[in-house]
Predict the structure.
Amino acid sequence: MNNPTITPYRQEQLTLEQTMLKMGGLCEAQLTDAITALETFDRDVAARVIANDPAIDRLEHDIEHQVTDIIAKRAPVPLVLRGIMGAMRIAGDLERIGDLAKNIAKRLTTLDAVAGQPKLVKGISRMADIAIAQLKTVLDAYSQGNVELAKSVWRRDEELDNLYNSVFRELLTYMMEDPRTISYCTHLLFCAKNIERIGDHCTNIAEIVTYIVTGVELGDGRPKGDHTSETSIEPTHDSV
Amino acid sequence: MNNPTITPYRQEQLTLEQTMLKMGGLCEAQLTDAITALETFDRDVAARVIANDPAIDRLEHDIEHQVTDIIAKRAPVPLVLRGIMGAMRIAGDLERIGDLAKNIAKRLTTLDAVAGQPKLVKGISRMADIAIAQLKTVLDAYSQGNVELAKSVWRRDEELDNLYNSVFRELLTYMMEDPRTISYCTHLLFCAKNIERIGDHCTNIAEIVTYIVTGVELGDGRPKGDHTSETSIEPTHDSV
């Protein structure tokens, strides 16, 4: 619905913001559904997530076109330019979040086929709760232009990284103890990694929101907590 | 070195292209070094890759600033705008390629600590050869504005996906057969996945190059070959 009291140029900027928030909302729904599918072994929900992914890609293209159109037609002043270039970069992160959610859903095809053990998914559920909350918060930060909210997302990512470290160790330990779970746990490892990456994309968005609002970039001082690339678990005697 | 016979505006565009190609060359070197480190268990090379990564991030920032400056100062016509927005999107893919190479290098810290088996790395080396070739080719396609070359990268990605599928199965089988390799093979699985992702970023860049040159986007008709999210390996009787 267009508002007659605002200029067409301002309307274009609002439409861009709305498209981005719509894209963000869809990513949130996709991630929530992908995790529900994983928790309940629900293939129908997984299939829906996979089917919905192209809609996210189309919204990213919409945003790129809107941004290019505005720049070409309006030659925006630097402040506006920062906002619309930022929107395009955020759309790139959202597209990846959508992709990672779809990838979790795709793994269901396999996880359903083997005897899944719900206890193994618990850590991943906790990770997903945080990731979904982070995504919600950073979208709020964008729509409100709230830098403090953005910074809280940036800071909270370490919690997700720490949880990922413990899920990684836990799954490796299960695999050692019972090699029949190797295939299953490997897929869960990739799901956990995907959620950890979603957290990284939320912090990227938080950095972009901060830049849009203040013109200043958040430094590289964020505490990094993913140490799994340096993690090694030795098998116990029982397991070999 | 600036050329006195071209306008300052054209010079800005050339500088942007040069920065992007410099970033691409650095990514290529980082990926080559990360794989060498993995093949030879060379921690010094791995440490160098990790230390070099911030240089790639700085180049991405440079590119974003150059793009924003050109747009703000010059209000480019649509054809030029397409080129410089494309450069910014390519820089995003290159930054991720650099990150994935760094992540491979980081895993060396662990792989070195356990008894690595060189035969397990062979499939990954073959994948890396293709990924490095794809990156070289797509950067050539960019600098030459060669759409046919870009399309060849787009089409060849399936080969990398197929190789990834077989490496994935191979590593899972090793883990089943000898649970002592679980921790080691898990890290190799993530390395393989990283290289497969690098291939995806090369096809993204190929799509952007095609769009820059022709104004038309490559469709979604690319053959997709990564089926590992649907792969399950059952343990043999010997292994449990």
